[in-house]
Design brief:
Elements: H1 5-52, H2 57-85, H3 87-111, H4 118-168, H5 175-201
Helix pairs in contact: 1-2, 1-3, 1-5, 2-4, 3-4, 4-5
Length: 207
């Protein structure tokens, strides 16, 4: 009755790791979509600044910078997405090796040395498992480093949004519209910061 328990534990652990990767990918997709939205907002802001003329020159410059920020953010998040794209296969491999090891361990326990090649197969499986786990840990470190780099970029985006809000005050009759756009920038960037905070707490593997 107790023999299946190790295998159930392996399945539960694998499901947990796959769930973490799904959460990471969902947050990445959400940030990519938001970056696209910022790009459209920046284009609208640039057009609005041109209509406002000399009164909104500073706002126009900042809108261009915010558009570049959105493009840089999209590149960063695309890189993150590429990093995690192969992780599902790695986790599946880890789970399979863990399951096989559990089955072999139970076979050895029940029959001693009566299963030909069981111990050697378990050693080979353990080596493959260690390699897959090392691969996931390396990916996890790269992911965290990339998230930290992106967080720094988003801090710059926040500074640009605050500066745009200041410049909007000098937009003359266009000031209310420019102020609304700059407020929208700030809110969307704050949303990205929250998503990155969630990403920063996620781990592809648990020690």
């Amino acid at each position: 009755m107790n023999a299946p328990q190790p295998n159930l534990h392996v399945k539960a652990r694998g499901s947990s790791e796959l769930a973490r990767i799904v959460r990471v990918n969902e947050e990445i997709k959400a940030i990519v979509a938001t970056a696209f939205r910022i790009n459209l907002m920046a284009l609208n802001a640039i057009f609005l600044a041109k209509r406002a003329g000399n009164a909104a020159l500073g706002f126009g410059v900042l809108s261009n910078e915010l558009r570049r920020f959105a493009q840089d953010l999209t590149r960063n998040m695309s890189s993150l997405r590429d990093m995690t794209s192969g992780s599902v296969g790695s986790v599946t491999g880890v789970v399979q090796y863990q399951r096989n090891s559990s089955i072999l361990a139970e076979a050895i326990r029940l029959s001693g040395d009566g299963v030909p090649g069981a111990r050697e197969a378990r050693r080979r499986g353990a080596a493959r498992l260690a390699a897959q786990q090392a691969k996931l840990r390396a990916l996890d470190i790269r992911l965290r480093s990339a998230v930290e780099e992106t967080q720094q970029l988003v801090e710059l985006g926040g500074v640009l949004a605050r500066s745009a809000k200041i410049e909007a005050a000098y937009g003359g009759t266009f000031s209310p519209a420019l102020m609304q756009v700059s407020t929208d920038f700030a809110e969307v960037i704050a949303q990205i910061k929250r998503s990155l905070e969630i990403l920063g707490k996620e781990r592809l593997v648990k020690d």
